[in-house]
Specification:
The complex is a heterodimer of chains A (265) and B (120). Chain A is of the alpha/beta class and 265 residues long. Helix content of chain A is 40%, strand content 13%. Chain B starts with a helix and ends with a helix. Classes of the chains: A alpha/beta (265), B mainly alpha (120). Chains A and B meet through strand 3 and helix 3 of A and helix 4 of B.
């Protein structure tokens, strides 16, 4: 993997505002929700209490329960309503498009199921403000972690961790974490990405590191999900997920190899 | 004249006529109909002149002529399915873009409405 050199990212001189002081930097919290009416107020109130200086955008991904009715009484938070269910990743992408259009400097991804803890978000936002990282991931498995995990998922996480380290020479302990802060630049890349992956996990991180973006990981605490189902519940869907992810990473690798070879030729 | 000799060419003709009628009533695009028109035509030709199949099989060095038919039709069908999948993923992407843009536009409308209410 010698020719997989990281390319420097072009510095844009746009509204990302590297000249602004830290106080002026605007954060948008994006919360994709799909039939989360049970957890919704809990999550939003927690965000409002812990992070009152940040704007909140809820993306209603075509919910069929009373999430929509509850959101219509939301008042001071912005709500985007997708006409039908497009899935978690594409709902997120909608949020990225919104944030970039509105010129937010940083975007905080926050799950609507109550798994993420709002007070932990400061660890992410402080890191992205104090370092030159483009992506900061909140990790469950870094440092002293007591997050319970099934053996199958532990194996999967281990495989992807080694794979990322092998390709990118950097350890990412929790690539599936949806608790992340990204910069405006990254938001733009994600928002404009055609065929945005269904699972934006290890594949996207590998892709971004190879493109020359700086990814950092910070240990955070997370709750065990309050209600609703997880994304990879049984053995078959875990296996399907892993194969899809491996294939996805392979394609990204070959793509980058071709690009870097084409440039050096 | 066996039943086969009449039925198969007739089937080819029916396919062509049916495709033509669909196109005529604007229920099928001209571009996509070309392939199906050809399918009907090939069925017709091969059932009227089965010798063609023998010539092709000798050409390709395949001893059993009907297997040429299976080979070609399988490959053609695979090609068609792949093309359809390609179109499907493109349509899906377009649909997603539309849904996202729709959500963003709806938000713009609400924002504008709120502004109008404030000034009014």
């Amino acid at each position: 993997m010698i020719f997989l050199t990281k390319k420097p990212v072009h510095q844009f001189t746009n509204s990302t505002g590297h000249h602004k002081s830290e106080k002026e930097k605007r954060f948008l919290i994006i919360v994709p929700v799909y039939n989360e009416s049970g957890n919704l107020w809990f999550v939003i109130n927690e965000l409002k209490n812990e992070l009152p200086e940040y704007d909140i955008l809820v993306i209603n991904d075509g919910s069929t329960d009373d999430t929509s009715q509850k959101l219509s009484k939301s008042g001071d938070i912005r709500v985007l309503t997708l006409p039908f269910n497009v899935g978690y990743a594409l709902a997120l992408q909608t949020g990225f498009r919104y944030a970039v259009k509105k010129g937010y400097d940083f975007i905080l991804q926050f799950d609507g199921d109550g798994q993420h803890i709002a007070s932990e978000a400061h660890k992410l936002t402080d890191t992205i403000l104090s370092t030159d990282s483009d992506i900061v991931i909140g990790s469950r498995f870094m440092g002293a972690s007591d997050y319970p995990h099934s053996p199958v998922r532990q194996l999967g996480t281990g495989i992807f961790k080694s794979l990322i380290r092998f390709i990118c020479k950097q350890s990412i302990h929790d690539p599936t974490s949806g608790f992340q802060v990204i910069s405006n630049r990254v938001g733009r890349v994600y928002g404009e990405m055609p065929y945005f992956p269904q699972f934006p996990d290890a594949n996207l991180i590998v892709d971004m590191i190879l493109r020359g973006y700086k990814v950092k990981e910070v240990p955070v605490k997370m709750r065990i999900r309050r209600s609703g189902k997880g994304m990879h519940e049984n053995i078959f869907s875990s296996l399907h997920y892993m194969l899809l992810m491996l294939y996805n990473i392979l394609i990204i690798l070959v793509k980058h190899l071709l690009v870097t070879k084409g440039e050096s030729a | 004249m066996t039943l086969q000799n009449i039925l198969l060419p007739l089937f080819g003709i029916i396919v062509m006529v049916y495709v033509f009628l669909r196109v005529k009533r604007n229920q099928f695009s001209i571009e996509l109909s070309v392939f199906w028109m050809l399918v009907g035509f090939i069925i017709f030709i091969l059932s009227v002149f089965p010798k063609f199949l023998d010539i092709i099989s000798r050409w390709l060095g395949i001893y059993y002529p009907p297997s040429v038919l299976f080979l070609i039709s399988t490959m053609l069908l695979l090609f068609v399915i792949f093309r359809q999948e390609q179109m499907l993923s493109k349509l899906n992407e377009n649909l997603k873009n539309l849904a996202q843009s729709n959500a963003l536009l709806e938000d713009r409308i609400t924002t504008l409405e709120e502004k109008i209410h404030i000034t009014a």
